[in-house]
Design a protein that fits this description.
Blueprint lengths: L5 H9 L25 E6 L15 E7 L10 H20 L8 H13 L1
Parallel strand pairs: 1-2
Helix pairs in contact: 1-2
Length: about 120
């Protein structure tokens, strides 16, 4: 997981992101009673692409935006690998935030998320 690495936290801090409350979360936190409903689940680690996703209450859309795991980079290259991954995820998140989410039905949203994955 990204947040177990000091390189991930460093990349976020250097981007001006407050990491004081950031932590890895187990998927079952999102399946617990009282958890907020999910509309979309996005996996990002290439190694997760072939894995079965856990059960998500409410049957949210599930898409994969793959990135090589930056923790597999050579030690001397890890900080840069994490920063490049943060930038790449940030680029796709900006595209996601630009979508008119409140007006897209399930199929339109899925198509838009898959188009972002191809960008």
């Amino acid at each position: 997981m990204l947040f177990r690495s000091p390189f991930a936290l460093l990349a976020l801090r250097e981007a001006g992101i407050d990491v004081g409350e950031v932590r890895s979360k187990s998927w079952d936190e999102f399946a617990a009673a009282g958890a907020p409903p999910l509309r979309v689940v996005i996996t990002v680690c290439d190694s997760a692409a072939a894995e079965a996703c856990p059960y998500w209450p409410g049957a949210p859309l599930q898409v994969h935006w793959g990135y090589p795991d930056p923790s597999h980079a050579a030690e001397a290259d890890k900080a840069r690998a994490f920063e490049l991954t943060r930038q790449a995820i940030g680029y796709r998140m900006l595209q996601l935030l630009a979508l008119p989410l409140e007006t897209l039905d399930r199929q339109e949203l899925l198509a838009a998320l898959n188009a972002i994955a191809e960008s």
